[in-house]
Amino acid sequence: MQADDKHQWHLDRLSAHIDGELDAGDALDVAAHLAQCEACSTEYTLLLNTVESMHQHLPPLRAPNALRERVVAAIHAPNEQPRARQSRAPRMYRAWAAAAAVVVMIGTAYGIGVRVATPSAAPLAEAVLTAHVRSLQLGHLTDVVSSDQHTVKPWFTGKLDFSPSVPRFESEGFPLVGGRLDYVGNRAVAALVYQRRAHIINVLTYPAESAAAAAPHIETRRGFQIANWSAGGMAYWVVSDLNADELRTFCSLMREAVAAP
What residue spans in the chain does CATH classification 3.30.200.100 cover? Predict the structure, then answer.
């Protein structure tokens, strides 16, 4: 594949990457490309911000019952001669596409927003995963290398508008490796790096938009475990290829440490 064709291949898959529609191999390929290509990374950030803005500012829209009944009737109406089996899927797709267009037009005409059905946290989770994969590239993992929190924590001074907590968990089998600056969700964040055997754990933290605490949520994306929660006015994202049980153990340690006075 030529360089221009390869660039276009990655560019064409950014939306699918955000929506979690790529298989594991393609997703990691796109994430690695984003770490090296400024043009694609810029486009990817724009798409993420657009999707997130839609979720934050556009209220949900439920189609009127009459419209729903008309769409279902149109799909099942026997008004065409039978065709080959392979032609049915495109016909149904066109019917649903037309219905979606009608919903959008109705929403626009009446000033009603249309919200995409993807969970609102999905774009940010994808950005966190991309930051993790990017950090695994040679020379991207740490800006400051140290197992001493008294070295890592002061390093962030003057580089961020907040001071992150930097706990240590050597005795529990999760040694601190260092830290770095990263950029996720349209803002600079502190990235703390820990290790469990040969597995890297990234902890991305920044001031939360809401002061209300949120319970931990863990999901699996393309072989990686991603956890997030908020407490004490700070948001925390943890990502690693550790198994879910070990990641839960680490997250419990982190939550207890940052909650301590």
Answer: 122-259
Q: DSSP string of 105-161?
A: HHHHHTT-----SS-TTHHHHHHHHHHHHHHTSTT-S-SEE-S-HHHHHHHTTTTSS
Cβ–Cβ under 8 Å, residues 51 and 118: yes
What pTM did the predictor assign?
Answer: 0.58
Report angle CA 238, 241, 242 to the nearest 5 degrees: 85
What pLDDT, on the 0 to 100 scale, is given for residue 171? Answer: 96
Average model confidence (pLDDT) across the chain: 77
Residue 234 parent element (H or E): strand 234-240
Return the CA Rg of the chain: 22
Cβ atoms of residues 143 and 178 within 8 Å: yes
Residue 59 DSSP code: -
Report the alpha-carbon distance of residue 254 to residue 216 in Å, rounded: 11
Confirm or reject CATH 3.30.200.100 for domain 122-259, answering yes or no: yes
